[in-house]
Write a structure and sequence with these properties.
Blueprint lengths: L2 H24 L3 H24 L4 H15 L1 H27 L2 H11 L14 H31 L1 H32 L4 H39 L5 H11 L8 H13 L3 H26 L8 H15 L3 H23 L1
Length: about 350
């Protein structure tokens, strides 16, 4: 090995080690950094327009955008999380009581007695063993949900100082990303160890995927959840905020979508012979909630992710398990980069 090669190898090894150590240093602040980046990316087009109008007011515009983002996003988000924790506990307690008092079995018997279900009752829930298993599963699920909600509620209360600290970090980092985002982006672009064309294609893919997932998907999910929340409240569905939040989360997941929330509720209303509410929820759920997904996503997102729906489904589900909630945003980016790199590899090296 030549001296120049040895020096290059040593330099790369030291650089990799330092990058790893820097990553460890900033790892505790990853959540704050990530959400600050999400907020900045979402509102950056508005910041860019204001900066063109007022070119000499960069600091003022960055500060104004930071304040706007946190007045619009953070207080409602905190209130929703607090109310959500309360409603999850209430829902788990209701479900536990519902199963314990035998109302689940009564509902199953009522379901089996419906005319449209007569033909299928010989195959569905016909045995006592199936009913017992279903009751045990529902009881265990209710207990688990209650324990999780109580744990998170306790953790939120105990760690309120760290929550506020994270909010402070997010606000500060959001200002930094608004003010110096373009410079940070250019720095990362310049040091990326790829050829010019490869680098251009990869960064374009990242930008388009983030735009699709964050701006398009987030706007679609908020709209669907808002319509669902209004509908649940109007129909008198218990714990409307809880089911609205579930609609918001499930709308991120391809294939299943918001229908995985409103459809079971509509079926439950049908079983309970609340036919008017059930029909209204079926009609407005299909044409008002789920149809938004098919209208807004193609209009806003288009084909920017270039990923099949089944891959997005498994990718998001796996990303949420591996990364947590941020996996909703990271998984599509990782998958898009994977296929972009495969395409570049095939064009250059195969």
């Amino acid at each position: 090995m030549k001296r120049e090669q040895l020096i290059s190898f040593f330099f790369i090894a030291v650089l990799a080690f330092i990058i790893y150590e820097v990553f460890n240093i900033f790892a505790p602040f990853f959540t704050a950094i990530f959400w600050a980046a999400i907020f900045t990316f979402t509102f950056y087009p508005l910041y860019a327009k204001l900066r063109k109008i007022f070119p000499r007011r960069n600091n003022s515009i960055a500060l104004l955008m930071t304040i706007t983002v946190f007045l619009v996003v953070v207080p409602p988000l905190i209130m929703i999380l607090i109310n959500m924790t309360t409603q999850i506990i209430e829902f788990s307690q209701w479900a536990y009581t519902y199963v314990r008092d035998g109302k689940l079995e009564q509902m199953i018997e009522q379901l089996r007695g419906l005319p449209w279900f007569q033909k299928a009752q010989a195959h569905l829930l016909a045995s006592q063993a199936v009913k017992d298993s279903l009751s045990s599963w529902a009881l265990g699920t209710a207990k688990t949900m209650g324990n999780i909600a109580a744990t998170h509620a306790g953790a939120l209360t105990k760690n309120i100082f760290f929550v506020l600290l994270n909010v402070f970090f997010m606000s500060f980092l959001t200002f930094v990303f608004f003010r110096h985002g373009e410079r940070i982006y250019n720095f990362i672009y310049e040091i990326a160890p790829f050829e010019k064309e490869t680098k251009k294609a990869l960064f374009k893919q990242i930008d388009e995927t983030f735009a699709a997932v964050i701006r398009g998907q987030l706007l679609t999910s908020v709209t669907q959840a808002t319509v669902a929340g209004i509908l649940f409240t109007a129909l008198g569905i218990p714990l409307p905020l809880f089911f609205t939040f579930l609609t918001f989360l499930t709308s991120f997941i391809p294939i299943l979508g918001a229908a995985s929330v409103w459809f079971p509720i509509a079926v439950y209303l049908l079983i309970m012979q609340l036919y008017v509410q059930a029909i209204i929820l079926f009609v407005f759920g299909f044409f008002g909630i789920s149809l938004l997904d098919n209208i807004m996503k193609p209009a806003i997102i288009g084909g920017k992710t270039k990923l099949p729906y089944f891959l997005l489904f498994f990718g998001i589900m796996g990303g949420m398990k591996f990364y947590g909630p941020v996996g909703i945003f990271l998984a599509p980016v990782v998958l898009s980069l994977f296929f972009a790199l495969i395409k570049i590899y095939r064009e250059k090296y195969v």
